[in-house]
Design goal:
Blueprint (H helix, E strand, L loop, with lengths): L4 E12 L2 E7 L2 E3 L3 E5 L6 H8 L7 E6 L2 E2 L5 H7 L1 E3 H5 L7 H12 L10 H4 L3 H10 L15 H13 L5 E5 L7 H14 L4 E5 L3 H7 L2 E6 L2 E6 L1 H6 L1 H8 L2
Parallel strand pairs: 4-9, 4-10, 7-8, 8-9
Antiparallel strand pairs: 1-2, 1-3, 1-5, 5-6, 10-11
Helix pairs in contact: 4-6, 4-7, 7-8
The chain binds adenosine-5'-diphosphate.
Adenosine-5'-diphosphate (ADP) binds next to strand 2 and helix 1.
InterPro entries: AAA+_ATPase, ABC_AA/LPS_Transport, ABC_transporter-like_ATP-bd, BCA_ABC_TP_C, P-loop_NTPase
Protein name: ABC transporter ATP-binding protein
GO molecular function: ATP binding
Length: 248
Amino acid sequence: MVNDTILETQGLTKEFRGFVAVKGVNLRVRRGTIHALIGPNGAGKTTCFNLLTRFLPSSRGSISFKGQDITRARPADVARLGMVRSFQISATFPHLSVLENVRVALQRERGASFDFWRSEQVLSTYDARASELLDAVGLGAHAHLPAVELSYGRKRALEIATTLALDPELLLLDEPTAGMGHEDVERIAALIQQVAANRTVLMVEHNLSVVANLCHTITVLARGEILAEGDYATVSKNPDVVQAYMGA
Ligand code: ADP
């Protein structure tokens, strides 16, 4: 394996009772890049994410992360190694404040058992780092609002902040801009770019202008197989890709 590769799959395959949802996928994600997984509905993107994070066992093939074989690893071990999917920890607590949500994430990351009733004094030891993370995602001014009162776009930013509390090397984002208005899309896109300054990001994304603006490499899946790969200019001109989207 080339050593700038952070994640690599060989022949990754998932069958659901004879239906092949992911078929012989050889994916290579380079360290430090923003890599998109796109494709029409039913292409196998979510299944791929579930296989990579080991939420689902694969039927065949191998997965290597940072040079380690994780084909049969437990999801918690994958996260511990540094591959974290945003919703794994996001589950925001709506009635806790934005800051408290990040404190809880930090407390978990440090291995402390999750406990709402720990003294304020103990929890406040996480305040400095929590504030840093909130500033990083542009939520510094909203730290004391209950999470439930955030706009949808800001809730997604909070999810990213809680995920960053785990200090992932590879961050998996599942449709980070889904359901957002233009302003929130811009804000999240800027955040992803900033987060990617010192990490690798693999994202499933439907918004092609986000993909075009952010992603260095795009893997197009269709019917469980890789149809095309490359930068946006290359894949968007590929007649097979155009056909897969038109025919979807
Ligand atoms: P995408 O995320 O690209 O829309 P999915 O990975 O969700 O695609 O699904 C790929 C295919 O696998 C679809 O045809 C879907 O119906 C099928 N599929 C996904 N999960 C299951 C499952 N648990 N059991 C059976 N079929 C599934």
